[in-house]
């Protein structure tokens, strides 16, 4: 007996103005991996891809058409946007859960926000919250619901309602170590041509997402790891190269975004990966995320051989004092060396910058500006410190948080705790840094003006700024 399963992602592109303007949508990778795992176990699976949908009514229409027995509302845990737990994504997930529950389906949910606030999702109509990787736990749960005599409390990694309206946890789940044993994502269950059309219209090529690993072994105190934890499981270079070959053949991607928190980790893995890609004629330009302390010249050389086009470094700040406060484990000199090594090998060096970490001073902001000016990264992404549950940073500022503890969307940039400056000022700093990178130099008049105004924009209360 098979179950009809409907899996749903929750990132509606139209609900996030910044992402809509960027028009760089990626497939719901985590959802597609679970879909493949369910099909391997004999279930009939459909996918609701929220990316290009108008809203929840589109989900309800598919729900009515498929008439599933089980619905899984699964965030794509490989997409950094889901870690933000924005209000718009939460509202979408809760609405989809409520609709599936009203339709008489069994409902399971998985994602960062659900792991942090399981009762909220259970009260919305979910029968279970999956706290870890869903590849094994969701198919097991679906099978238990199919076999009505099975007891789901024996399945690890679930949060369930108890008889008093609170929550109870089943046994702790273990992360998946043998990633090579997992099936390929179910690319055929979504509209690949819709992605191709919007990518080609906006950028002239199709970029697609893959992951070579799960987790991150490093301990930055602001980084949440509610799904994969502080561990690092890695696929073999052979397995990754073979997926690239199949992706090139079946999806016809022109570019790949490796969505790993940390790609490769060692020179040896990257060198072997490059050799396997060449052997399969699978070479495709790609983009990764990495740390400055890992990106030595020999790593840059191996990445270039493999086909790396762009590397995003988690630089965060040009102030060593702030990096140490973040427990980042990197130095500004490593940032300089890594950036130069990438450029020397023809790879675009891009930086993530984080403003507003507690105790940041104007001198720290200027140190960040000067590091950007000195090394001239090819692009930057600027955010402000964002307290996520489960982090030491969140514990430090928790008492300052008001009713609003999440951004509305990815461009919000609201200070949710008492930082050094106001939300409006940080937004102006973001714009100034972006303009400097585009111009390749500092706008001295603009920075003089910001310096003159700096004292007027200091935060004086733990106020949640308007979005």
Describe the structure.
With 467 residues, the protein is of the alpha/beta class. The protein has 18 helices and 15 strands. Strands 2-1-3-4-5-6-7 form a seven-stranded mixed β-sheet, with helices on both faces. The protein has a six-stranded parallel β-sheet with strand order 8-11-12-13-14-15. A two-stranded antiparallel sheet has the order 9-10. It is globular. The N and C termini lie far apart (50 Å). The relative contact order is 0.09.
Roughly how many Å is the radius of gyration? 22 Å
Average residue-wise pLDDT: 92
Report, as a whole number of angstroms, the end-to-end distance: 50 Å
Low-confidence stretches: 461-467
Strand content: 5-15%
**Sheet with most strands: strand arrangement:** 2-1-3-4-5-6-7
Using the alpha-carbon principal axes, give the shape. globular
Number of strands: 15
Q: Residue share in helices? A: 40-55%
Largest sheet: 7 strands, mixed
Total number of helical segments?
A: 18
Helix/strand-derived class? Answer: alpha/beta
Helix and strand arrangement:
Layout: E1 4-8, H1 17-22, H2 29-40, E2 44-48, H3 56-66, E3 70-74, H4 80-83, H5 87-102, E4 106-110, H6 112-116, H7 118-123, E5 128-130, H8 134-146, E6 158-161, E7 167-169, H9 192-203, E8 207-210, E9 213-214, E10 233-234, H10 237-250, E11 255-258, H11 267-279, E12 286-290, H12 297-306, E13 308-316, H13 320-325, H14 332-344, E14 348-355, H15 362-375, E15 379-384, H16 392-397, H17 423-439, H18 444-453
Parallel strand pairs: 1-2, 1-3, 3-4, 4-5, 8-11, 11-12, 12-13, 13-14, 14-15
Antiparallel strand pairs: 5-6, 6-7, 9-10
Helix pairs in contact: 2-8, 3-5, 10-11, 11-12, 12-14
């Amino acid at each position: 007996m098979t179950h009809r399963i409907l899996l749903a992602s929750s990132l509606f592109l139209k609900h996030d103005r910044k992402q809509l303007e960027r028009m760089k949508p990626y497939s719901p990778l985590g959802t597609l991996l679970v879909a493949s795992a369910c099909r391997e176990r004999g279930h009939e699976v459909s996918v609701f891809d929220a990316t290009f949908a108008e809203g929840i009514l589109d989900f309800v229409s598919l729900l009515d058409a498929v008439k599933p027995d089980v619905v899984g509302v699964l965030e794509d845990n490989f997409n950094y946007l889901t870690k933000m737990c924005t209000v718009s994504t939460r509202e979408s997930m809760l609405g989809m859960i409520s609709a599936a529950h009203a339709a008489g389906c069994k409902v399971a949910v998985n994602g960062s926000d659900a792991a942090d606030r399981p009762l909220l999702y259970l009260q919305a109509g979910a029968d279970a919250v999956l706290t870890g990787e869903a590849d094994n736990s969701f198919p097991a749960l679906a099978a238990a619901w199919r076999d009505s005599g099975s007891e789901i409390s024996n399945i690890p990694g679930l949060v369930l309602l108890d008889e008093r309206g609170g929550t109870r946890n089943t046994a702790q789940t273990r992360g998946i170590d043998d990633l090579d044993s997992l099936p390929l994502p179910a690319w055929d269950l979504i509209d690949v041509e819709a992605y191709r059309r919007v990518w080609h219209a906006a950028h002239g090529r199709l970029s697609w997402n893959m992951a070579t690993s799960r987790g991150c072994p490093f301990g930055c105190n602001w980084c949440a790891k509610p799904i994969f934890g502080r561990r690092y499981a890695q696929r073999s270079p052979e397995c990754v190269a073979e997926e690239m070959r199949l992706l090139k053949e079946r999806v016809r991607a022109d570019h790949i975004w490796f969505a790993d928190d940390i790609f490769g980790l060692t020179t040896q893995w990257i060198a072997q990966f490059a050799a396997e890609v060449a052997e399969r004629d699978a070479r495709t330009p790609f983009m990764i995320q990495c740390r400055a302390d890992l990106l030595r010249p020999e790593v840059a050389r191996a990445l270039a051989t493999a086909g790396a086009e762009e590397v995003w470094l988690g630089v965060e700040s040009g102030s060593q004092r702030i990096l140490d406060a973040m427990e980042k484990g990197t130095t500004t000199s490593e940032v300089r060396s890594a950036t130069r090594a990438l450029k020397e090998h023809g790879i675009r060096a891009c930086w993530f910058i984080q403003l507003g970490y507690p105790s940041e001073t104007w001198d720290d902001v200027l140190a960040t500006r000067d590091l950007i000016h000195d090394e001239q990264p090819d692009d930057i992404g600027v955010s402000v410190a964002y307290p996520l549950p489960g982090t030491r940073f969140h514990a430090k500022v928790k008492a300052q948080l008001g009713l609003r503890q999440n951004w509305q969307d990815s461009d919000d940039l609201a200070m949710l705790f008492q930082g050094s400056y106001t939300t409006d000022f940080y937004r102006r700093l973001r714009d100034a840094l972006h303009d400097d990178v585009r111009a390749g130099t500092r706008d001295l008049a603009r920075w003089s003006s910001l310096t003159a105004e700096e004292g007027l924009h200091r935060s004086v209360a733990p106020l949640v700024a308007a979005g």
